Amino acid sequence: MPFSLIPFALLVIPLLEIGVFIAVGSQIGVFPTLGMVVLTAIIGSILLRVQGFGLLTRMRTELDQGRVPGRDLVHGVMILIAGILLLTPGFVTDTIGFLLFVPPLRDAIWAFARSRVTVTSASHAHYETRRQQGPQTIDLSDDEYSGGRDDSPWAGDR
Q1: CA separation for the pair 127, 122 (Å, rounded)
Q2: Measured between alpha carbons, how far is 56 from 49 in angstroms, rounded to an integer?
Q3: 131-to-123, 128, 140 alpha-carbon distances in Å
Q4: CA-based Rg of the chain, rounded to a whole angstrom?
Q5: Domain locations along the chain
Q6: Is the dihedral of CA 110, 111, 115, 118 positive or negative?
Q7: How far apart are alpha carbons 21 and 34 in whole angstroms?
Q8: Nearest to 44 by CA among 77, 80, 18
Q9: pLDDT (tens digit, 9 = 90+) per residue, 30-85?
């Protein structure tokens, strides 16, 4: 999300939430509206726990098999965002949060993101190969050093 859209979203989302609260509250009443907000927070925390633990199990399996769990990492971020949105009071954020708990929708978002993101990993073997190529520091002896340039700003310090 570009930075220019963030202030816009911070203004629009609360305004939408207020409008939806007023519309729902005028139709079903204040206490049922507040009850729905609390109920969605409880359901969201249960979904977060169930899907989060399942995701951690799949990620552990991927890592044990030596693969990078890129898809599962993205799904984990989306589940975390969904949980935060469901714990935030409001119907608009709850709707977005519940939609992020739907695996086919997360797969569609992952397919969109995967075409724009590259996941790479660094292995220990690659690091060892680079270390064994030799020293990266050039050490000059006194007779190999010929002094500095006369037009250097530090020439007067000698």
Answers
A1: 8
A2: 11
A3: 13, 5, 21
A4: 28
A5: 8-116
A6: positive
A7: 9
A8: 80
A9: 999 999 999 988 998 898 888 888 888 888 888 888 887 878 888 888 998 998 88
